[in-house]
Design a protein that fits this description.
By secondary structure, the chain is mostly helical. The chain folds into two domains: 4-90, Orthogonal Bundle (DNA polymerase, domain 1); 109-275, hpI Integrase, Chain A (Orthogonal Bundle). 56% of the residues lie in helices and 5% in strands. The protein is built from 13 helices and three strands, in the order H-H-H-H-H-H-H-E-E-E-H-H-H-H-H-H. It has helices spanning 7-19, 24-41, 50-62, 67-84, 109-117, 122-133, 138-142, 173-186, 204-217, 226-239, 244-251, 256-260, 267-279, and strands at 149-150, 155-161, 165-170. A three-stranded antiparallel beta sheet has the order 1-2-3. Belongs to the 'phage' integrase family. Residues 4-85 form the Core-binding (CB) domain. This is Site-specific recombinase XerD. GO terms for molecular function: DNA binding. Keywords: DNA integration, DNA recombination, DNA-binding.
Length: 281
């Protein structure tokens, strides 16, 4: 959807997404996936039929695309054909791929401490500490502004997180002290963690790269990503007997079932249940 002949189609799809208030990143991803489909076809995607779509799914599966990629592609093309083109018949037989349920990787509190101490700089140590200490997603960390830190109420405001919802998360005294040290060093004005160009925030890619570097320096042999810190935050709260519904609110989960996943990896909680069960016999 890049040449001039297809620009009206692109414009209409953008309008359809704008009407539904899709986030800018979502719009970008949807357009890119339709562009990839068009490149595979070698022609405008509005000329495709069900067999073309089926062949494209086979192509993606055969080229090693993961389950998330396959499902995101189906979701995008369903929107494109149903909404933008008004041709639901093309996608009515497409199905999402069932993704096997996998337990998240969780670090112990000691491993988290080692990782944070191994961060490449104070900037990254503070950003990674916010990710863990407040349970934020990468996108939420980089979008923070200085004004989002409320030291009077000891909370952090997360503006327009996933699902375009605002929420407040906890701010510990330790994390506040670290944030103050970072502010005194860098004096950020708008973005809490500015990028190389201070007019722009730090990118998620830069933050993830710093997380991987810290994990390597800390000699942690688990597969660590920025989301691992969020998983660890939730699991450690659960092990401290924090109500799961409170954790749900802090994480910004729409469904309790999503948060309940952490009950399967909270080892201390599992051990407590086992010891109580043994004692009652």
């Amino acid at each position: 959807m890049t040449d001039q002949a297809m620009s009206p189609l692109r414009r209409r799809m953008i309008e359809d997404m704008t009407i539904r208030k899709f986030a800018p990143k979502t719009q970008h991803d949807y357009l890119q996936r339709v562009k990839n489909f068009a490149a595979y076809l070698g022609r405008s995607p509005d000329t495709a039929n069900f067999e073309d779509l089926r062949r494209y799914q086979l192509h993606l599966a055969g080229s090693g695309a993961g389950v998330p990629t396959l499902n995101q592609t189906i979701s995008t093309l369903q929107f494109f054909f149903k909404v933008t083109l008004g041709r639901p018949d093309i996608v009515e037989r497409t199905a999402f791929v069932h993704e096997p349920s996998k337990l998240p990787v969780v670090l112990s509190p000691e491993e988290v401490a080692r990782l944070l101490d191994a961060a490449p700089s104070l900037k990254y140590k503070t950003a990674l500490s916010v990710a863990y200490g407040a349970g934020l997603r990468a996108s939420e960390v980089v979008a923070l502004k200085v004004s989002d830190i409320d030291s009077q109420r000891m909370v952090i405001r997360v503006e327009q997180g996933k699902g375009r919802k605002d929420r407040y998360v906890m701010l510990s005294p330790h994390l506040l002290a670290l944030l103050r040290a970072w502010w005194k060093l860098a004096r950020p004005q708008g973005w809490l963690f500015p990028g190389q160009n201070r007019l722009n925030p730090l990118t998620m890619r830069q933050l993830n790269r710093a997380c991987h570097a810290a994990a390597d320096r800390a000699e942690i042999d688990k597969r660590v990503s920025l989301h691992t810190l969020r998983h660890s935050f939730a699991t450690h709260l659960l092990e401290q007997n924090i109500d799961i519904r409170v954790i749900q609110v802090l994480l910004g989960h729409a469904k309790l079932d999503t948060t309940a996943l952490y009950t399967r990896v909270a080892t201390k909680t599992i051990q407590q249940v086992m010891s109580r069960s043994t004692a009652s016999r």
